């Protein structure tokens, strides 16, 4: 995979990966001081950077072993550690060591998921199947689903969603989905049929308008759709 | 590297890696609630597990791509994120965003170091040189050096060592050592000459006795020796 040592193609994707890592770490810092909204936004920002670093790496043909390793480390922090600490401090900490065990369980499952994914890159030459299907819920989606109770809480002020037992159950389900062999379509690599282009643009516009006008409600709807899609496949 | 799919040889090293990861994450938890001593011990425990997982993987010939990836993720948490957050909360937080930037810098350098190291495993067939020399200070050594001011503070009660500017300088130096090309002898792989065996056993006994009778002083001495050894090579 080490093919194009061009300056820009090497450094742009890796710099974006490092930005994603910094967002994930800073999210931990804000979780600790109970600045929940900032912590959530930093995880979302990390997922946007994560999308673009992969996109740039493919466009600039700069994907390297080094980039894949760095991406794995950054993903683990932003979508494994940051969400689990956020949910722990926000809700699970009431359950003390049981809450901490479940937060650890989520991080461990994220590590297993990412290690399997990154190790697979080296095993076989990439087939089309590998590009289209992830095996197990990818960590950014898992991070989003783990934060669903927070989104509902912020939008509707339902105090029930801060309940530690509800969050415990949610985190356990998502952790198991991560290490399961459930197939997942990777949006990044689908070659959409051209006739769907206007529809897809419309969908993207609806998402953007939704997020700008009511970020929490949009996140609730997106997370529920993803959740339902996974349960249909089970 | 995927050669021996034996149950024990696969699961023992990876389980030890996961224990190391859990120690690293729990260290973060204790740093946050200012339980500095527990946080330091958990990082030290993680480094012991880290040593043994590599050792078991070699002995049981169970080293796999998956194990290497998992090890990289666990090392990053235990020796990149946990020490930087510990030093941040213990001292650097007085400097607010400057302190945070330096903590982030340490984590980013640890990520770069680990990504380079893991990516290199796949690049070339392992040569003897690769086994004996690490390039750049390895992350467990870096973690130990970054904690040196804490060890001194606990042993001698010198309040000066909690000074954020001193810690800032220390963290920056170690971060740069991590991403430098400084060669490092890997203790794990040296084939010691048999006539040195009694000497080495004596050295190990002295270390163990020292750590049991006065843990902080021993850690101070070990860290200073490592520090000096690196600066001799510069």
Structure description:
The structure is a homodimer of 234-residue chains. Chain A has helices at 7-32, 36-59, 65-90, 97-123, 128-132, 139-146, 148-156, 164-179, 197-213, 215-233; strands spanning 133-135, 183-185. Chain A has a two-stranded antiparallel sheet. The model of chain A has no long low-confidence stretch (mean pLDDT 86). In chain A, helix 2 runs antiparallel to helix 3 (65-90) and helix 4 packs parallel to helix 8. Chain A is globular, with a radius of gyration of 18 Å. Chain A starts with 6 loop residues before the first helix and ends with a helix. The first copy, chain A, contains ten helices and two strands. The A-B interface holds A 2, 18, 21-22, 25-26, 28-29, 32, 64-66, 68-70, 72-74, 76-77, 81, 85, 100, 103-104, 107-108, 111-112, 114-116, 118-119, 122-123 and B 2, 18, 21-22, 25-26, 28-29, 32, 64-66, 68-70, 72-74, 76-77, 81, 85, 100, 103-104, 107-108, 111-112, 114-116, 118-119, 122-123.
Keywords:
10 helices; mainly alpha; 234 residues; two-stranded antiparallel ribbon; homodimer
Give a nutshell description of this structure.
The structure is a homodimer of 234-residue chains. Chain A has 234 residues and is mostly helical.
Count of helical stretches of chain A: 10
Oligomeric form: homodimer
Write down how many β-strands of chain A occur, each being a DSSP E stretch of 2 or more residues: 2
Residues in helices of chain A, as a percent range: over 70%
């Amino acid at each position: 995979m080490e093919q194009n040592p061009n300056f820009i193609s090497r450094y742009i994707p890796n710099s974006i990966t490092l930005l994603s890592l910094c967002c994930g770490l800073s999210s931990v810092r804000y979780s600790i001081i109970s600045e929940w909204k900032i912590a959530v936004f930093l995880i979302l920002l990390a997922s946007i950077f994560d999308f673009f670093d992969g996109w740039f790496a493919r466009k600039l043909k700069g994907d390297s072993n080094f980039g894949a390793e760095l991406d794995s480390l950054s993903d683990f922090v932003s979508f494994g550690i940051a969400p689990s600490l956020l949910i722990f401090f926000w809700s699970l900490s009431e359950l003390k060591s049981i809450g901490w065990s479940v937060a650890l369980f989520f991080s461990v499952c994220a590590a297993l998921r990412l290690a399997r994914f990154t190790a697979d890159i080296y095993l076989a030459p990439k087939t089309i199947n590998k590009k289209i299907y992830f095996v197990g819920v990818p960590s950014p989606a898992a991070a989003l689903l783990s934060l669903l109770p927070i989104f509902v809480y912020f939008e509707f002020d339902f105090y029930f969603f801060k309940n530690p037992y509800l969050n415990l159950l949610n985190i356990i389900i998502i952790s198991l989905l991560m290490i399961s062999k459930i197939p997942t379509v990777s949006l990044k690599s689908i070659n959409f049929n051209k006739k769907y282009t206007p529809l897809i643009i419309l969908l993207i516009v609806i998402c953007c308008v939704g997020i700008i006008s009511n970020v929490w409600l949009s996140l609730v709807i997106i997370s529920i759709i993803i959740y339902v899609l996974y349960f249909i496949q089970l």
